[in-house]
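[retry 2/3] FACT complex subunit SSRP1: previous attempt timed out, resubmitting with same input.
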Amino acid sequence: MAETLEFNDVYQEVKGSMNDGRLRLSRQSIIFKNSKTGKVDNIQAGELTEGIWRRVALGHGLKLLTKNGHVYKYDGFRESEFEKLSDFFKTHYRLELMEKDLCVKGWNWGTVKFGGQLLSFDIGDQPVFEIPLSNVSQCTTGKNEVTLEFHQNDDAEVSLMEVRFYVPPTQEDGVDPVEAFAQNVLSKADVIQATGDAICIFRELQCLTPRGRYDIRIYPTFLHLHGKTFDYKIPYTTVLRLFLLPHKDQRQMFFVISLDPPIKQGQTRYHFLILLFSKDEDISLTLNMNEEEVEKRFEGRLTKNMSGSLYEMVSRVMKALVNRKITVPGNFQGHSGAQCITCSYKASSGLLYPLERGFIYVHKPPVHIRFDEISFVNFARGTTTTRSFDFEIETKQGTQYTFSSIEREEYGKLFDFVNAKKLNIKNRGLKEGMNPSYDEYADSDEDQHDAYLVRMKEEGKIREENANDSSDDSGEETDESFNPGEEEEDVAEEFDSNASASSSSNEGDSDRDEKKRKQLKKAKMSKDRKSRKKPMEVKKGRDPNAPKRPMSAYMLWLNASREKIKSDHPGISITDLSKKAGEIWKGMSKEKKEEWDRKAEDARREYEKAMKEYEGGRGESSKRDKSKKKKKVKVKMEKKSTPSRGSSSSKPSSRQLSESFKSKEFVSSDESSSGENKSKKKRRRSEDSEEEELASTPPSSEDSASGSDE
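[retry 2/3] FACT complex subunit SSRP1: success.
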C-alpha cells in the first residue's frame, strides 16, 4: 500500500467558489495547496470523523468532517479512484469512506439539519443541498420565515445572494421555531458585529491602499478600519500573509496585509492593505485586557503594557491575533545597498522586493508572485533607454508581469538572486563574462532573430553600396576634369614658347615671370575653390532602369508565407508578425531552408546576368553621349574663331608688335623662311583662339582627352 496519494487538478469548494490546487494524502495528514493563493489547508488524521464519497457536477467529490465541526469539500475525482481512496482511508485513517448520493427529486420541502458549520436540507436520508454557514452575511426573521443573505463571490459571474426558508408553526409551548432556526444560523455565520470594546486602537495611521488615514481598532476576531469616508471590517480568517518591508530611503517601513477574499468599495477590490510608518514614530500601548487574559490568550507573545516603534507594535499585535508569520526581505541586497529595486509596473513607479519565496511589488498596484507559480523569468532590453532593462515574469497560468526601468547596475545582483533560487531564466547563459554594461544585457529568445531588423540591415547595405559607387564615379570625374599638375605643365609650355620667341629682352623676361606667378596663383585659387565645392556636389541617384538586387532566402520565404501567418493569427501587428516569422524561420528544418536557399541562389544568378546586360547597354549609351559632346564643342570653336581673329587684328597684342618690329638682320634672306614664319604665326593664332574657347567652356574629362588626341 502506498504511503501517500497525490491528486492534481482537485477543486476545493470555499464560500461558493471552486479553487483548483493539489491534494496530498499521507499517513499523518491531508494537505491541500491552493494554486491561486498558495494557501495550505492541513487536516490532521486524528481530527477526521467522517468521509463521504458522492457524485457531483465535476465528476466525483470527497467530503470530510472533523471533530471541531469543520467541513472540507474536494471535487474533481474520477470514479475509478474510489477504490484507491477507500483502501487508503481504511488502512491509515481507520475510516470507512461511505458512498452517499444527493437527492434529485426536485421537492422543495424537507428537513433542515445543523451539523457543525453546515446547514443541510434533506429529503428522507438524502441531502438536497448544503449551505456552509460561514458564507452567511446576515440572517433576518419574519412571521414563519427566515431569510439568509450571503457574501458576494467576486470570482463567479452569478452569485447566490439570498435564500428564504418557510418554518411551519409547532405545538410546542415556549419554543419559537423561527427564532431557534435563526440562532443556529447566527452561532456559526460569518456575521461581524462589533460587540464589546476593542483590544487596542491605533489612531490616524497612514494607509496607501485604500488611500487615506484610518483608525485601526483591533477586535478579537476582526480588524476594523475607521476612516472619514469609509469603514472596513476585515475578519482575521481572510488574512493570508503579513509582510514587513523597509523603504529604500531607510527611514520608512511598509506593513502589508494580504487578503483573500479582498475588501470591497463599490466596484474596486483591495487584495492588499498597505500601511506606511516612519521609523521615528514611537508608541506606548496598553491592551484592554487584564494580565491573566493576555497570558492565557496570547501565551507570552503579547503583554498588557508594551512600548516601542509604531510599526513594531502594529506588526506584533497583528502577528499574535492572525497567528501567521511575518515575511521580511531575505539576503538580497541591491546595487545601492537597499533590499529592494526601484522599477515601474504599468504606469506607476514603485519598489520590487525579492523575498525568500517570491517577489512583492509595492505599492500601486500591489503584486505578490510566489516562486512556485513562476513559469520563467526574462531579462529584456529597455524600450526607451539603454541605461535600464526590463524584468519579465510569466506565471504557469500565462499571466505576464513586466517590471521596467530598472537601472542596469542592478542586473548582476538580480541575475545572481534569480539564479540562486533556481528559477527558469528564459535567456540563460548571457551572464558569462558579464560587465555592468548594457551591451551584455540579454534579449528574449523571441527577439534573437528580428526579421524587421534583418531587412533594415540589408537595405542599409544596399544604400551604402550605391552611395559608395556614386561617390567613386564623381571623384573620378573631378580628378579627370580638373588635374592641377597637367594645367601647370601646359602653362609652363606656353610661357616657354613665349620665352624662346623673345629671349633677347631682360625686361620682358621679368614681366613674363610675374605673369607666370600670377597664372600659377590663379590656378591654385581655382583648385581650392573646386576642392571646397566637392562636398556640396549632389550624389548620383540610383538608375530606375537598373536591375533590383535579389532577396535573401529568408525574405523570399517571408513574402510567400506572410498571408498564411496573418490568417493563422488574425489581427496581428506588423512588428508581431515579423517576430512570429523569425520564430518560425528559426525553428524550420534544414531541408526546408535549403529549398529557399536554392531559390535565392537562382535569383542571384539572374541578377548577375541582368547586371551584365545592363552595364553593357550603359557603356554604349555613354559612348554615344561622348560623341555628341565632342561635336558640340567643335561647333562652338568654329563659331568663335572668327571674332577672335578680328579682335587680334584690331587690337594687336604685345607679341605681334614685337614680331612686326624685327630688324632686318633677324630676317633671313631666304624667302621660304619668311613664308614658314608666316604660317607659324597663323597656326599660333588659331591655337590661341582654341585655348580661349576651351577656357570659356570647360569640357568633361572624356572631351579633354579626345581633344588632346586630335
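[retry 2/3] FACT complex subunit SSRP1: The chain has 14 helices and 31 strands.
[retry 2/3] clearing retry counter.
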